[in-house]
């Protein structure tokens, strides 16, 4: 067996790849559900119903999808330029912390500044925090050739410890009865409800707008062209006169800012304060989402809703039939690997004939 | 300052250094084997979790401790086979495939743990490896046989890489797969074999945590050790001896931060939140990466998939 590059990507394969990947994933998950002793068909029905089957399910899924869209975009834009930003989790937390620092300090009053001034300051602080956190690994990559995967991964651990120290120390909420959580944002800085009687907030609109903007940036602007060129072939891009190092830095700032915003949106749209468990791995799920979407910004929206639906649905399914909630993580990870494998066949065809 | 010197002179400190270093030595050697053959294996974090769980579960189910180690190695090798098929046979992105493997192995281990033990408040325990009290060596006799295994694995991997035809073949596929192909070697076979062997070592590194360092399986118990190993290989310039040195140095700082944390402000006169001490090892790994990155000893074909007949 050998692989042979197709001259043009196969249309049929592009359409079939996600279907095949989802089918393969469902097969693996079925075996695991059966192993846990639950009826497979009923478990899937419950999962689907819990994620998409009712008004409550859909609003919960959209709430969960909001930060996932932003972290998915963060991963998608970085991966487009072959900057493997695995640090979205840390960037999200640092963004959330910066948002609270900018909008909620001085006992939550933000030094008495009006909300119309504080709100943009809060969002800008979050974006800046995320961007600066990724700037280091991006510079280490372009200057010294240090692999950014390892540095961003290690930074995640450092940031989480830093957030923990802040929640124990300077940013601790004194009224939280010793619970490690930050001071709360004032009411005026919270994101408004988008849908009545649900938890969906206006952050969803922001996330969708970010997806549209990023799509337009990549498709219609010189910046976008440079990003795609550097990702496709950095040497050719350099030969064509593109400042590859600078493009990498720009992408890093953009990607980090998106992940930082995910943190701010999550804080301002939901609890209003930072805790150490505010993100159940949104940063890592963002990578899976970006890959499922083939790094397309609008695809990220669909993939984020899909992943959010599985996470929400698995929660309710697991309560009903006693399958561990970790099934959601297994499904998401399997989908990533299946999608990787399936995606290959859009670019390559298999020749079974023996090579001479 | 004298307290610090007292601390460094005490045997318990060095015992904990060697204990902290053990999984790092095994994991770093595992990464080294994979990368010497040209394959980045970011699955290590997940493989360590899976090894920790599978080895522990085998012992819990009645296997001997060494049986548990074998199960952990086998689990690692099997996951390595999957990673090898994805990155070598299918030539997919090594970064993304590795992360996928980590996510999959971690979530599978957590899922399997919850299916096996649906309702437990305190994690079930096993009887772990005992220290080798019969050894006439001061610090080593407080360690378990797995530490000895890790220390012996260093010269063994070095001998394999530099003194055997297999090692030469392995290094060749990592430097120039086309040249290896020209010599009639199977690039695919050698690379997948190296990834499986390296992943087996990662599995054993994981089971050290459940069979020697602790006696139970906890979620998050690997806690970034796998990523640290990936950084240590760069620090070690892809050499087994330096990998040992790197792991020991890293463990030294990890053990030191733990002591400083316990001592509070008593040692250096500075009072810091404990989280800052915990950051130290991760920060050290990043610094090591930057300092050593200028050296041009990276295997030339690392992260470059090989497709026959394609340039």
Protein described:
- The complex is a heterodimer of chains A (356) and B (311).
- Chain A has a single domain, classed as ABC transporter involved in vitamin B12 uptake, BtuC, CATH 1.10.3470.
- With 356 residues, chain A is an all-alpha fold.
- Chain A has helices spanning 11-35, 40-52, 55-80, 88-104, 115-144, 148-168, 203-220, 222-232, 234-239, 244-271, 282-292, 297-321, 327-347; strands spanning 2-5, 348-351.
- Chain A has 13 helices and two strands.
- The longest helix of chain A is centred in the middle third of the chain and has 30 residues, at 115-144.
- Chain B is mainly alpha-helical and 311 residues long.
- Chain B has helices at residues 2-9, 11-36, 44-60, 65-89, 94-116, 145-163, 165-175, 177-182, 187-213, 225-235, 240-263, 274-292.
- In chain B, helix 2 runs antiparallel to helix 9 (187-213) and helix 6 (145-163) packs antiparallel against helix 11.
- The radius of gyration of chain B is 20 Å and the shape is globular.
- The mean pLDDT of chain B is 90.
- The interface between A and B is large, with 46 and 46 residues.
Keyword list:
A: mainly alpha, ABC transporter involved in vitamin B12 uptake, BtuC, two-stranded antiparallel ribbon, 2 strands, 71% helix, 2% strand, globular, B: mainly alpha, 0% strand
CA-based shape of chain A: globular
> Using DSSP, what is the number of strands of chain A?
2
Question: What name does the CATH topology of chain B carry?
Answer: ABC transporter involved in vitamin B12 uptake, BtuC
Secondary structure tally: strands of chain B: 0
Q: Which sequence of SSEs, written as H and E, runs from N to C of chain B? A: HHHHHHHHHHHH
Could you say which overall geometry of chain B the principal axes of the C-alpha atoms support?
globular
Give the C-level CATH assignment of chain A.
Mainly Alpha
Helix-strand pattern of chain A, N to C? EHHHHHHHHHHHHHE
Strand content of chain B: under 5%
| CATH homologous superfamily placement of chain B | ABC transporter involved in vitamin B12 uptake, BtuC
Q: What multimeric state do the chains show?
A: heterodimer
Compute the average pLDDT of chain B: 90
